[in-house]
Amino acid sequence: MIRPFVFPGMTTRVVFGHGTLAQVPDEVARLGHSGALVLSTPQQEPQAQALADALGDRAAGVFAGATMHTPVEVTETAVAAYAAAGADCVVSLGGGSTTGLGKAIALRTGTDQVVVPTTYAGSEMTDILGETAGGEKTTRRDPAIRPEVVVYDVDLTLTLPLGLTVTSALNAIAHAMEGFYAPDRNPVTEALSRDAMVAFRDALPALALNPQDREARAKALYAAWGCSLTLGQVSMALHHKLAHVLGGSFGLPHAETHAVLLPHTTAYNEPAVGDLLRPIADTFGHGSAGRGLWHFAKAAGAPLRLADLGLTEADLDRATEIATRNPYANPRPITRDGMRHLLQQAFDGQCPA
Ligand code: NAD
User: Fold this and answer.
1) Whole-model pTM?
2) Ligand 1, CB cutoff 6 Å, lining residues
3) 162 Cβ contact list (under 8 Å, min separation 6)
């Protein structure tokens, strides 16, 4: 039976391949722009500068101050730099932090964005922006946030350190996982997410052996695209809520936190969703989606314990309290006992029962 669905359409143009960075100037021109402000983190500034050089007359400058969690102060400095440079679009080269800065500028100025993702975090295809002000992270969705163009260049991911490769991939898988049971899922997100599971399953072991494996890198980046598209089209639930709580209130690192939580949030919801998580169980084995993901993460060398990310056992009660404070939609009811148990398992790094 075909389930009734709404497909929201796709407004982001995607260019995927090896060496596609060279196409960024044409993409900027295609949008009708002549002054791109190139954004990056301080670590990726040399690449951003090289891209600005390649843009030539179409570059308005480089702003290399992007940082984790998109602090509003950084955005304000970047907006001032955008205006001072006379820029008419942004090109964001980097991971989710840099994409976040581009989105924050777009929200304030209406500028067009060309995003060149270099991790698998999956921010580039979404209309979601998380920002921090006064130590609090808030997330919003707005059509103005969604980038106009995404240029995926597999070659740029060859330098992604193995640790971030693994945790970033699990971050992406978390989007697909929640997409499988999202009430607003559609056949495109389902098909791409299924494809993404298989591509990540095959790519990660190959990358552990050789992080420079171009074909495995292509598979992983293709998978990241599918997961990002899913995140950009459907609503998220428990997993993303918990990751937000642990990142926002306890300062835990983004990709690692997603990686540790994923098997446990999956296992929590699995009994409540019928066979909707079957594509994950079928892909990763071990008889259930939660256990399959835990074994996959372990084999890939991902962190397994919240204890190793800086959380203390004393934090678990407060995390439970924050995570259960405001009700939100989730396939399985969120209970205090359920959350406390889930967090303890993730704290200890046990395989979900
Ligand atoms: P990141 O962007 O913070 O990058 C981590 C570090 O890796 C940085 O120093 C970066 O310069 C470096 N790096 C990135 N790519 C590299 C490469 N190819 N080679 C070498 N170094 C590289 O990390 P992230 O995990 O990509 O992004 C996390 C942020 O993204 C969080 O703030 C999160 O909230 C946000 N995010 C947002 C969405 C959304 O839809 N709004 C989705 C996912 C993630």
Assistant:
1) 0.97
2) 41, 43-44, 68-69, 94-98, 100, 118-119, 121-123, 126, 128-130, 156-157, 159-160, 164, 168, 231, 254-255
3) 207, 208, 211, 301
